[in-house]
Amino acid sequence: MGRPRSFDETEAIVAAAGLFAGRAYDGVSVDDLVAHLGVHRNSLYKVFGSKRGLYLAALRWHLAQRVRPLADRLRAAADPARVLRDLLAGDGAGDLDLLLLATVERAPQDPEVAREVADALRDLDEAVDLALGGTAGRGGAPSPLAQAFTATILGARLRTRTGAATASGAVLFDRMRQPEH
Amino acid sequence: MAQVSISGDTLVVEIEGLNKLWALKSRLEIPLRNVRGATVDPGIGREPKGIRAPGAHVPGIITAGTFHVDGERIFWDVRDPAKAVVIELRDERYARLVVQVTDPRATTDLVERAIARPRTE
């Protein structure tokens, strides 16, 4: 019944991920979504069920297409320490924005978001741990140091979003790698 | 105005006051498994409503009753779009309900929490 869907679902999800990465969940109205996604209101409800349904689809797309590749890059790198340092310096960290907002804003309120976020952070922790020479992903749990670096990558990105470029993550990395006296 | 509540595994929507007359319905009961989500959507008041049958539609004043748009049947009970909530359904007589509630955010949270909880299926 009804008109065929006249829009590309993935395109709509990608556009929604962009909107949700830039603004708080409550700051994105259905009017905003209808205007930016090029989707009729009725189709939006029919396909995604609700704004939350669309948000979850956007978050999952973001985690699979932006965050996961970042972790994979770390895993596959010939010089993983260098890639990790670049990440800490903010290189590619813009791909973490929706994860960042979801962690701060939606995860404490929405158990399904909390689960997605926890899985993504764990994946990053494991990749960072491997880059540090650890054994996560091969049966071992990510080390506290790996978790601290993941937290630093996200925290540095948070500060960068305020407009100030920061090299804090890279400085920390270099300090950690200095031989002990 | 509608009163939305959860009773066991059922979403209950009760239409209050004179709107019962216009909407020609006073109570809707929907199994939670047929509820896909709820959204605060004040902007929906500006959408074309489609063809009314049956119910009352005085543009700008009241939208109540059953409306048909794009082959879907939609139930409306809204006077003040600022307080409109959209409840999307599956396998029901209505594709969605657009109702006015006292506290749209509280209603949305109530419905979303009720359908998000793990069910054994």
In short:
The complex is a heterodimer of chains A (181) and B (121). With 181 residues, chain A is mostly helical. Chain A is built from 9 helices and no strands.
Describe it:
The complex is a heterodimer of chains A (181) and B (121). Chain A has helices at residues 9-22, 30-37, 41-48, 51-76, 80-88, 97-106, 111-131, 144-161, 168-177. Chain A is mainly alpha-helical and 181 residues long. In chain A, helix 4 runs parallel beside helix 7 (111-131) and helix 6 (97-106) crosses helix 7. The N and C termini of chain A lie far apart (74 Å). The mean pLDDT of chain A is 88. Chain B has one domain (2-116). In chain B, 15% of the residues lie in helices and 47% in strands. In chain B, a hairpin with a 3-residue loop joins strand 5 (51-58) and strand 6. The model of chain B has no long low-confidence stretch (mean pLDDT 86). The interface between A and B is medium-sized, with 20 and 20 residues.
Keywords:
heterodimer; A: 9 helices; B: mainly beta; three-stranded antiparallel beta sheet; 2 helices; 47% strand; globular
What is the overall silhouette of chain A? elongated
Terminal residue distance of chain A: 74 Å
As for the number of domains of chain B, it is 1
Low-confidence stretches of chain A: none
Q: Which H/E pattern describes the elements of chain B?
A: EEHEEEEEEEH
Strand content of chain B: over 45%
Mean of residue pLDDT values of chain A: 88
Describe the main β-sheet of chain B briefly: 6 strands, mixed
> What share of residues of chain B is helical?
10-25%
Return the domain count of chain A: 1
SSE blueprint and pairings:
The complex is a heterodimer of chains A (181) and B (121).
Chain A: H1 9-22, H2 30-37, H3 41-48, H4 51-76, H5 80-88, H6 97-106, H7 111-131, H8 144-161, H9 168-177
Helix pairs in contact in A: 1-4, 1-6, 4-5, 4-7, 5-9, 6-7, 7-8
Chain B: E1 2-7, E2 10-15, H1 19-23, E3 27-31, E4 35-40, E5 51-58, E6 62-69, E7 72-78, E8 84-89, E9 96-100, H2 104-116
Parallel strand pairs in B: 7-9
Antiparallel strand pairs in B: 1-2, 2-3, 4-8, 5-6, 6-7, 8-9
